[in-house]
Amino acid sequence: MDARLLSGRWHASAILWIGVFVVSAALAASSIASAAPAAKVVKGTVGPGFTITLTLSGKKVAKLKAGMRYRFVITDRATIHDFHLRGPSFDRVLTSVDFQGTKSYTLKLKKGTYRFFCDPHASFMHGSFRVA
């Protein structure tokens, strides 16, 4: 048999096996990535009037699970309000007073009580939920 023919067959076979390996690795990586649970979306709104809300699946948030990832999507509809979230080892203004628009944060919350409020109007624009 001609040495060039054997070399060509080996080369084609090696390329095929490398391709199979790359595709298998890509599929394995995508299945690992998709195995991680997606963060549940918690929607917060502030304004345009003097309202502030926090919902999950369309219902007012009263209790969330500790250690789970949640994606907080905050829609700020007025430049006279902010959205401030405070809880155990957490104190952060998610939207500032001069901001109007939407911001998103992925958070892992600890056990305890969390309060959300508008700093300039905290006496009447506020809410809370528990994490257990």
Structure description:
This protein has 132 residues and is an alpha+beta fold. The chain folds into two domains: 1-36; 40-131, Sandwich (Immunoglobulin-like). 25% of the residues lie in helices and 42% in strands. The chain is built from one helix and ten strands. It has one helix spanning 3-35; strands at 40-46, 52-56, 59-60, 63-64, 69-76, 83-87, 90-95, 101-108, 112-117, 126-131. A five-stranded mixed β-sheet has the order 3-2-1-5-8, with no helix packed on it. β9 (112-117) and β10 form a beta hairpin. The longest helix has 33 residues, at 3-35. The chain starts with a helix and ends with a strand. The relative contact order is 0.17. The model has no long low-confidence stretch (mean pLDDT 85).
CATH top-level class of the largest domain: Mainly Beta
Radius of gyration: 25 Å
Distance between the termini: 74 Å
Q: Quick one: how many beta strands? A: 10
Q: Biggest β-sheet: count, sense, barrel?
A: 5 strands, mixed
Percentage beta strand: 35-45%
Specify the overall morphology.
globular
Pairing-aware structural class of the strands and helices? alpha+beta
How is the largest sheet built, in terms of strand order?
3-2-1-5-8
Which residues form runs of ≥5 with pLDDT under 50? none
Residue share in helix: 25-40%
CATH architecture of the largest domain: Sandwich
Mean pLDDT: 85
- Tally the structural domains: 2
Element string (H = helix, E = strand): HEEEEEEEEEE
